[in-house]
Specification:
With about 70 residues, the protein is of the alpha/beta class. It contains two helices and three strands. It has helices at about 20-30, 45-55, and strands at about 5-10, 35-40, 55-60. The chain has a three-stranded parallel sheet, with helices on one face. It is globular.
Length: about 70
């Protein structure tokens, strides 16, 4: 993947129980050359924080937009 970047986009809403393992799974399967982008659709839990801690780039909506 010389000179190329792959981004995996994961939309989430209140997925704190699963998002950590999803992000880890992507990195384990595809390596560190992939970028995981989590779009948090106004979650009321710790989805965004957990995704960040696992190495994802996180974008947050201020409220659920569907």
């Amino acid at each position: 993947m010389e000179g190329k970047q792959i981004s995996i986009i994961v939309p989430v809403f209140n997925e704190e129980k699963r998002i950590g393992s999803v992000v880890e799974g992507v990195f384990n399967a595809l390596g560190n050359e992939v970028q995981v982008v989590v779009v948090d659709d106004g979650s009321e839990d710790d989805s965004a924080r957990i995704a960040r801690e696992k190495g994802a780039r996180v974008f947050e909506h201020p409220y659920n937009m569907g």
